[in-house]
What does this fold into?
Amino acid sequence: MPSAIEQIVDSYVRLKNRRGLDELMMHRQRLAVDLKSRSGYDFSLPIGQIDEEIAIIEAGLSRLKAENPKTV
It folds into this structure.
């Protein structure tokens, strides 16, 4: 069963919503930067999950680009 982020990315790709994917990517990148700058607690698990989500979003952006090379 696909994860929630995979379903969201698939929906954005299907709807050709590049802006939605870009906003999702920026949000995840801001979270990663914020967590990586913190100390006093082991944030490796949430950072790992966010990194996985960023990879899923990047794959979605690549799929969208492959489907619409002129518009991206």
